[in-house]
Design brief:
The complex is a heterotrimer. Chain A is 71% helix and 1% strand. By secondary structure, chain A is mainly α. Chain A starts with 5 loop residues before the first helix and ends in an 8-residue tail after the last helix. In chain C, strands 2-1-3-11-6 form a 5-stranded mixed beta sheet. In chain C, strands 8-9-7-10 form a 4-stranded mixed beta sheet. The chains are: A mainly alpha, B mainly alpha, C alpha/beta.
């Protein structure tokens, strides 16, 4: 056998490759898979399995201490005769419907206000983010109860502006949810940061061009800022909505895990948790989880479907 | 001329006033928390003001070793865990986001939908199957169940966030670089990545914060011995309804626990400030 | 070409290695004192953490081959974690167990039967009632760490300041309101006579057991009727209407916090509170006024109160070191130094010798628990049957109904009916 020199081998390899060069499209597809590989591994290896397992569990009676027993759709049927379940649904819907718009509204407002190149922007931004840092701490639980108590700050303020007998926020089951809505809205710092980052990303020349065209501040806001912010408005809307549907910790820490008073703050996932881990009815909890999943997926899908009418991606511009 | 500048100044002043009022509202609980951490236990619920009647640092001193193992250990454990989580998310989520936002490959839409769907299932029901899975892998008792998923882009929140950010970058830049001969890899590393710094900063901040506070996973997987506890796990051991609680120590340690989070936020928020100037890329 | 000699020696080594494995295993875990690695889990606040970790140190000092790693959490997190670990088949070696869950855990095979280790556990002078509560269907799976008894805890300073005697230990439910209204007249303006106990699981159980054998029958089904619930809630509602009871709003505010420092008794909003006997220590630590224990009101034709094992130690059925586990548990409940450190923090100790040993060293409020146990214990009626798995859901329904009625959201009959439905549903699921 004649032995090839290393240089010859290299030349041969290049020549061989020349005839089998991949199309750009195929190259892009391969690159796509290379980039997506970690996620794919994570999804298939760590996420999909447990998700499907939990779906299977929803058709079983499972008390965690012994293997699950198949019972078909009984869990789902039992949900429909469970008054606490419907109560939890109602409470959660109120929470989502009120807290998400308010939270996003404040986040957008403050982000726009703070983006004006104010002096002290950095400090303000940090201060408005502080609530999100404190979020689920025990200190908040204590303080919130003090503030919303019958002789607390909130009622004192309300009386001062003329509401003479404000409700007993913490002990009246029909209004206790509003203390949690207030807590959620108070933590608007997270979506605000995202809006701020997005505002920073809008190219300055677009504003300059609009100004040259004679657009005032407000027109600039409507014509430039908002449209370019829509991808992040979509993001925040979807994720805050999903987060609100799945909210657990606020109710857990403020009501001490009870969802009280008298289930006034019984979030859907809190009830799920009580059933699954407290009463060892994991199958029932799994059924609740998958029902929530369906509802959230439907809402999200709906939002995405409408998004093509109001979300504008700069990458699509010519 | 003069009247305009007065109007402008009054407007600015009112804005500042409103912002300060708002900021105080945001800050009040934090201030209360710090103030109460210097009060003895009995006073915390009795006197709700911001000034302690009998200030004491006992809560800090006692709380640091209040659980047997010193809090130094807990802080170190938490810091290591969070640092790894941040690195993991930054690496894996940007890769996946770039693919979803900029590359065409078969099943892309299906994968994107799957990714979003993973956020929609409440974690309470996947805890048990995941625990069993990690047990089979032998990862229970190590940091792997918490860190490995970060390197595999399991946090769909950040993938979606980065996708939205990347989609706001004009395609013209892509086209320009392609003409210059950039393949997808170089496009990612040299063009797209630098332009998503604000999103990367956001990812880093949120990952650090959420990992730092993620108490139950850490209790479950790292809770086999007090020496491997992280800060949130240790904190919840201070108060229990069925036996004596130490609210003061809990508050003191909670205040200290905020310091790294706040520090991380302050360090990274500069990146949120740096805007994108596209003028340099023209031509 | 395989070298024959090397092959044989290699196979021999391999065979020896395989044969040696069981021995290694025994050394590593099963043999007891030859180097064990034990995981110990409990729930409780940081006072309990301090005491327990001290005892662990005391034990491991003379047993250098034994490594005990401690895990602790607050009550709800503890059970969330333990139930998850149980699902994964990896319970810690020694777990603190509750009467609410021990039946389930035992019947699903999660806990080790400690009957073969009775001698090592030295159960000779162990309180019989608590011993029985650790026996599930013939298996000894729980060793009680301390007992408590449902009791009326009262502010003796406030009551004597009001010029009245302490509640009598043989007062009946019927006579109680008379005493309470005398008390209410003399108490300070914002202090009510009695704290609302309509949602207290121990209280309801005592009251019901004065009329019937137990709230659960032998098959584990509910033994009381909706009318019983109506009577129970009706009694407390009458007290509430007569302004003798802490109003619903204050109760609801306390329920959200749940810790002793938020108790109406501690906050001087109530003079008497129905609670578990071991809480007297927690309350006294938080109060300048003196508090003391008295027996629950009497009624019906039987004794209703009972001694309950407030917490137990159980051993995982999968433990690799049963002998060491048992040795540690025995140390925990009998060793002179250990029991002094532990005191009555987990309740009144079950072994009589331990009680006698620690009593002189205890603070007065802690010692009062033992006094109460000695006084009332013999008057109680044993409750050996384990609680069925739905008992948690049942008592939650009781608490919710109690709150709803107290806040005026439900009438007594409406609330009782709703609660009873929920209880039936829980019993049949």
């Amino acid at each position: 056998m004649t032995r090839l020199s290393l240089a010859d081998t290299r030349i041969l390899k290049v020549q061989a490759g020349a005839g089998t060069r991949l199309t750009p499209k195929a190259k892009e597809a391969i690159a796509g898979y290379v980039f997506i590989l970690p996620w794919l591994l994570g999804f298939l290896g760590l996420t999909l399995g447990p998700m499907l397992a939990s779906l299977w569990l929803s058709f079983t009676k499972y008390n965690l201490l012994s293997p699950p027993q198949w019972i078909g759709i009984k869990n789902y049927l039992n949900l429909f005769s469970d008054s606490r379940f419907f109560h939890a649904v109602r409470i959660t819907l109120i929470y989502v419907g009120v807290s998400v718009p308010l939270k996003l509204g404040f986040a957008l407002l403050l982000a726009v206000l703070l983006n004006r190149g104010l002096r002290g922007l950095t400090i303000y931004r940090a201060l408005f983010y502080v609530p999100s840092l404190l979020g689920s701490s025990v200190a908040i639980a204590i303080l919130w109860r003090q503030m919303f108590g019958d002789s607390g700050l909130v009622n004192a303020a309300l009386k001062a502006i003329g509401w003479h007998s404000p409700p007993s926020w913490l002990t009246d089951p029909s209004v206790s949810i509003y203390t949690l809505i207030a807590l959620a809205v108070w933590e608007f710092g997270s979506p605000m940061i995202i809006f701020l980052a997005g505002l920073r990303q809008i190219p300055h020349d677009l504003y300059e061009a609009a100004q040259i065209d004679g657009a005032g501040r407000i027109t600039q806001f409507i014509r430039v800022t908002i449209p370019l912010l829509t991808p992040l408005i979509l993001f925040n809307l979807v994720l805050q909505m999903i987060g609100a549907f799945q909210a657990f910790t606020p109710a857990y820490i403020i009501s001490g895990g009870t969802g009280g008073p008298v289930d006034g703050t019984l979030f859907y996932t809190l009830y799920l948790y009580q059933q699954a881990f407290g009463y060892l009815q994991m199958g029932y909890g799994a059924a609740m989880a998958w029902l929530l999943f369906l509802v959230v997926a439907l809402f999200t899908g709906g939002i995405f479907l409408t998004s093509r009418f109001w979300v504008f991606y700069l990458e699509q511009s010519s | 001329m003069k009247s305009i500048s007065i109007l402008y100044r009054t407007r600015r002043a009112t804005l500042h006033l409103l912002l300060i009022a708002g900021a105080l509202l945001m800050l009040y609980p934090l201030l209360w928390m710090i103030a109460s951490s210097f009060k003895p236990d009995a006073d915390i619920f009795k006197h709700l003001g911001l000034i302690p009647h009998h200030a004491t640092i006992a809560n800090y001193v006692d709380g640091w070793t209040g659980l047997g193992t010193s809090f130094t250990r807990f802080f170190v454990n938490s810091a290591v865990l969070c640092a790894l989580a941040v690195v993991g998310n930054l690496c894996s989520c940007t890769l996946a986001a770039f693919a979803f936002a900029r590359l065409r490959f078969p099943l892309r839409r299906l994968f994107f939908a799957c990714m979003l769907l993973t956020i929609m299932l409440p974690f309470q029901v996947t805890i048990v199957p995941q625990y069993i899975l990690f047990r089979k892998l032998g990862w229970v008792g190590t940091i792997l169940p918490i860190v490995a998923p970060k390197f595999l882009a399991v946090d769909a929140f950040f993938v979606f966030l980065l996708v939205q950010f990347i989609r706001t970058i004009p395609r013209e830049l892509d086209d320009a670089s392609k003409i210059d001969g950039c393949g997808p890899y170089r496009l990612f590393y040299f063009v797209v990545l630098p332009l998503t710094l604000p999103a990367l900063a956001t990812t880093a901040i949120f990952t650090f914060l959420w990992t730092w506070n993620d108490f139950f996973s850490q209790l479950l997987y790292l809770g086999s011995s007090a020496r491997s506890y992280t800060v949130p796990v240790a904190l919840q051991a201070f108060v229990d309804a069925t036996s004596q609680s130490s609210w003061g120590q809990l508050l003191a340690m909670s205040v200290l626990s905020l310091v790294p989070i706040f520090g991380f936020f302050l360090a990274f928020q500069r990146l949120l400030l740096d805007g994108i100037s596209t003028t340099g890329l023209k031509g | 070409m395989i070298n024959r000699r090397r092959f044989i020696s290699q196979t021999a080594t391999a065979a020896l290695g395989v044969a040696a494995l069981p021995l290694l295993d025994a050394c590593a875990g099963g043999g007891g004192n030859n180097g064990s690695d034990i995981a110990l889990a409990w729930w409780g606040g940081n006072d309990r953490v301090k005491r327990t970790t001290k005892v662990v140190k005391l034990y491991t000092a003379p047993h250098p081959n034994v490594k005990i790693s401690s895990q602790f959490a607050a009550w709800t997190s503890y059970w969330e974690k333990l139930n998850t670990e149980a699902a994964g088949g990896s319970l810690p070696d020694i777990v603190q167990m509750s009467v609410s869950y021990i039946s389930d855990y035992t019947q699903r095979g999660q806990l080790l039967d400690l009957s073969p280790h009775k001698a090592a556990l030295k159960l000779g002078d162990f309180d019989k009632q608590q011993l029985a509560q650790g026996m599930i269907k013939g298996k000894l799976t729980g060793i009680s760490l301390g007992a408590n008894i449902p009791a009326m805890c009262y502010n003796s300073s406030a009551i004597s300041a009001a010029g009245l005697p302490a509640p009598a230990n043989d007062v009946t439910w019927d006579a109680y309101p008379t005493y309470l209204s005398q008390l209410a007249k003399k108490l300070p303006h914002d202090m009510y006579a009695l704290d609302d106990g309509s949602g207290f699981d121990g209280g309801f159980t005592v009251w019901a057991r004065q009329r019937m054998d137990d709230i659960f029958d032998d098959d584990g089904k509910i033994a009381f009727t909706e009318n019983d619930l109506k009577d129970w809630f009706g009694y407390w509602d009458d007290l509430r209407k007569a302004k003798l009871l802490v109003p619903g709003k204050i109760e609801a505010a306390y329920a959200q916090i749940g810790t002793p420092d938020a108790e109406p008794l501690v906050k001087h909003q109530a003079a008497i509170t129905p609670t578990w006997s071991n809480f007297v220590s927690q309350y006294q630590i938080l109060m300048k006024d003196k508090v003391a224990l008295e027996r629950f009101p009497q009624g019906g034709d039987k004794a209703g109160d009972y001694v309950q094992a407030s917490q137990m130690f159980s051993v995982s059925s999968k433990t690799k070191s049963p002998k060491t586990d048992v040795d540690f548990i025995s140390y925990f409940i009998h060793n002179a130094k250990a029991v002094q450190v532990l005191g009555v923090e987990r309740g009144v100790p079950a072994p009589a010798a331990t009680r006698d040993a620690i009593k002189p060293t205890l603070k007065p409020y802690d010692a009062s628990q033992i006094d109460f146990y000695n006084k009332v214990g013999p008057l109680t009626r044993a409750r050996p049957k384990p609680l069925p798995s739905y008992s948690g859901a049942l008592f939650d329904a009781l608490t919710r109904a109690s709150q709803a009625i107290a806040l005026g959201n439900e009438s007594v009959s409406g609330g009782s009916s709703k609660a009873f439905d929920e209880m039936q549903k829980a019993a049949s699921s």
